Amino acid sequence: MARTDLLHRLAIQTSEREQHNLRRRLRTIDHIEGPWLESDGRRLLGFCGNDYLGLAQQPQLIAALKRAADDEGVGSGSAHLICGHRREHAQLEEALAEWTGRERALLFSTGYMANLGTMQALLARGDPGSRPGQALCVQDKLNHACLLDGAQLSGAELKRYPHADVAAAARQLDSRPNAAALLATDGVFSMDGDVAPLTALAALCAREHATLMVDDAHGLGVLGDDGAGSVRAAGLGQHEVPVLMATLGKALGCSGAFVAGSAELIDGLVQFARPYVYTTAMPPALAAAACAAVEIVRHESWRREKLQALIARFRTGAAQLGLPLADSPSAIQPLRLGDAQSALEAAQALEQRGLLVTAIRPPTVPHGQARLRITLSAMHEDEHVDQLLDALATLPKPVGTGGHV
To answer: What is the CA radius of gyration of the chain?
Structure first.
């Protein structure tokens, strides 16, 4: 029998996605100014980005990046462990550790790499001759893909529990009571916008002697009194949540990620996290910009306050329209529409009215839960939210609710 041609097989799979309205496509953005985006000659009001505090275009960050680039150039020129770890990286790690209340922090080039590296270091079987035994990784079913991939690539046994179901998580841990165990969860879930039951999960992990890891990519900068994220907002610290990962490319407006925790954790990651060891360090100028962002987030609370006011305004208006919003207190406000075609048509209708909102379809979300993923930012104004609500009011309601919203 002839060997299967891999490129042909990939083309068939892509065609199948096209047939089911699930094919992903790139959109080029030509220019951004505040919440406005220019694409294909059109000016659109964006409600789909992750720049929750509006820092990506802040003059302070741009100035910090430019100063560092003038002094150090653009690229770091090497992996951290060779000669790529610059002063700017060290300063940013110190600032992140202090902000999150941890002993130390370690920079990664992306959040995906941070989760892959951390889980591989914690869960892998180890070197030949080490103590045998497959580790257990318990995860929320709605966790981000990189947490799921990290567990699978590590060789650990992955068990998933229904979303936010602490009792089910306990049953998964109980299934292998003698295995070394990591319970990993998003802090704020990227597609639903709700917050994990962190206090209950921390208590569970303490009782079961499991390690709790929180991916706070969408909570850092937005939640907590000083923006330190969902873990801080839940009143938890390093002892209760030993492994904290968060990104620099969302509320902080830059790029990259970090893992924060004990000195013992960070020392271990430096030794065994392959995506850290074998990757060129992020540009030092970018680290300098992120350090400036940390200072702004910590000391300019008005950005979080404005964002929360916009969230409240949107949710109040959506309730008045009878929109089926998820129960989300975060900047992520998903409007579930059911099938992929409905979500695509809704996104297209909004774009015709000058609004850019992304349709999220399977496999990113479960089948039957396609949605508009609406995100708000401190860059928005009240009138922008009202414009969005007016446009949403013209969309057909999901099947079964009748009429228009």
So the answer is: 22
